[in-house]
Amino acid sequence: MWRQRPDRRRRLVAWLAVLALWLSPLALATAAAESPTPQPPPPTPVPVPGGGTSPSPFPTRLATPSPATRPPELAARAAVLADLDTGQILFAQDADARRPIASLTKIMTALLVIRRTDPRELVTVSPEAAAPSRRVGISELGLLPGERITVENLLYALLLQSANDAADALAEHVSGSVEAFVEAMNAEAARLGMRDTHFASPNGLDDRGYSTARDLVTLTRAAFEHPLFARIVRTRFREIPSPSGVPRIVQNRNVLLWLYPGALGVKTGFTSAAGFCVVGAAARGGVRLLSVVLGEPGEPFSDAAALLNYGFAAFHRVRLATEGEGLGALRIDGRRVPVEAGASRAALVPVDEPLARRVVPEPGVPFPPAVGERVGALVVSTPEGTLARVPVVVSSVPGPPPPGPGPWWRRAGEAVVHAVATLLAAVFG
Question: Is 162 known to be catalytic?
Answer without folding.
Answer: yes
